[in-house]
Amino acid sequence: MKWTLIPTIILSCLFAIPAYSKSCGDVTIADMNWNSASLMAHIDKFILEHGYGCNAELIPGDTMPTGTSMVEKGQPDIAPELWSNSLKNALDHGVKEKRLRYAGKSLLDGGEEGFWVPAYLVEQYPELATIDGIKENAKLFRHPEDPDKSAFYSCPAGWNCQISAGHLFDALGLEEAGFTIIDPGSSAGLSGSIAKAYERKEAWFGYYWSPTAILGKYKMIKVDFGSGVDEKAFVECITQAECDHPTVTMYPPSPVHTITTEKFAARAPQAYLYLSKRGFTNTNMNEVLAWMEDNQADGEEAMIYFLSEYPQVWKTWLPANVAEKVEQAITTY
């Protein structure tokens, strides 16, 4: 009788041992040095700790060093917001060698670029939603220093987007329509020109991108070039310094992913599943970024604001029992 009990006792003991191979354990998360990525890092830390029992730690990060470190060293475990085109070959190689995984899209719409005009202007002149309408009404966009010219606000000098904006300026025939490129000098100069135009309800036309606080605070309309997206032309010519014959194309969305190490994904499949579902629309992200700017908030403060004010968004990322744990934790944080 006692011999028949031994296997049962052994099995009972085995089942009582925690399944450490599937536990979340220690997790490192890259806290990138821009607001949307820092917000996501703090959200992931909070949800992984309070929803999945992870011991999560934020470490400083940036696109190239973080991606390279994940491929070569397996650290950090998670990069919440990686603009993957900038190191696509290295990431794909890491996935092929089973070192990394693409968890999901952290920005569901992708990074968005384009030429924009204020919404109030399109309400007054609906044709300004198209590039033909812009060119036909070029005189509305008065140059601040030359009344005989029209102003196009481009990307700051030295940024990669200065190349693409310049080539599209040429391809669209904007100089022939009377426009001159204005270099805003900096990101602050470019965003400040939009804010100034909005405050005065003046015409403004130029390059910008999303998600950003500016597009969260000021409603802007992306101008339709009527061309659709020619990704081959964009990659091979529009984004290249040497592009003798640029053709018209809308900006393709830039893929923005959450990347994890393979070891983390295998060790904590439920936590990985959360990361595969966690993603923001540009509209929601623009709103939170605008709140961060208005309140001079950091990533942690914005995390509290988001979890408190947007439960209809983040609860869709989680099973009901996990969402309940997170909700209880945020009320007492």
From TrEMBL:
Residue stretches spanning the membrane: none
Assigned GO CC terms: ATP-binding cassette (ABC) transporter complex
InterPro entries listed in its UniProt record: ABC_Gly_betaine_transp_sub-bd (IPR007210)
Keyword Signal: yes
Name of a matching Pfam family: OpuAC
Protein name (database record): ABC transporter substrate-binding protein
KW Transferase (keyword) present: no
